[in-house]
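Database export, one record per block. Field names are fixed; values are copied verbatim from the stored entry.
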Amino acid sequence: MVAWIGHGSLPLEFKALLLLPVLSLLVLLSSRSFALMHDCGHNALFHSHWLNRTAGFLLGVLNAIPQHPWSRGHAFHHKHNGNWQLYRGPSALLTLRQYQDLSEQNKSIYAISRHPLMLFPGGFFYLIIKPRLTLILGMGEFLWSQLRQFANELSQKGWGSLQALPAQLRKHRSSYWYTSGELADLIANNILVITSWLLMSRLLGAGLFWSCYSVVMTASAAIFICIFFIQHNFKGSYAHGSDDWSYFQAAIEGSSNLEIPLWLNWFFADISYHSIHHLCERIPNYRLKECHLFNQHLLVSAKRLRISDVANCFGYILWDSDTQQLITIAESKVGAN
């Protein structure tokens, strides 16, 4: 259908109108495939670990992101949810004191970097650029470290140091991946993704393919980064440090539940029932609603958000470690005065 839309006999305005519903549907389907990939990372979509691993890898190719490294990073989030002293990732926040120590220029840069509009360039970078850049930088780091180490060994032991080279390669610890499994997934994903880009560019034409593909991937990534952010950054969210952190309290009070239409929930694989997901990550998406309703008497303190609440959530970009809560920049200025 996309190829037919690109036919030269149709007026440009008509082509654009036809593309809108097609691209919108592709964005939603891409969002669902990302949600199912997320389930595979938790070994929740299938009973078989092998099926979860295989399906997760293929969905990762579809989403242009290596699933295994992503799922390991996401597992860290689940293990430390609500512990803002340990959290690392695209939604990491400054503490109030760190923010107050910044220059006015850097304060403005930080605020802009957390603005909702940054979801779009951030989404494009997250799916299209980052996985490729990670492999390039990681391989560069690997080659440079090995060359330096080999040069040192060569100067000390001569050519006999060649015998130690295989052991040195195995001992390498990268800043860009943690295990050989992550590296294998990263390489395989990049090979298949880049190959698919070349084939689709040849089939549809580079201009049509990249204009449509960029929109779909950017929008779907922005949606899920947005969902992830608002499900943990909201007024009253559980925000503690390591000393008094509670896994169960963080799951219930540090994860919001979204009130969205049923049809939209299907595209998001019911991840809107987020508190129960954090209480038990092995619940498959098609059981989340059922489990949420069955246990809702235990989730009375969990935050419920409507779509109209989304914009306000993006204000909570500072962690006040003294009061153990997320605050806005405006609230930080009131406290300073």
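Remark 1: DSSP finds 16 helices and five strands in the chain.
Remark 2: Residues 229 and 296 are 23 Å apart (CA to CA).
End of record.
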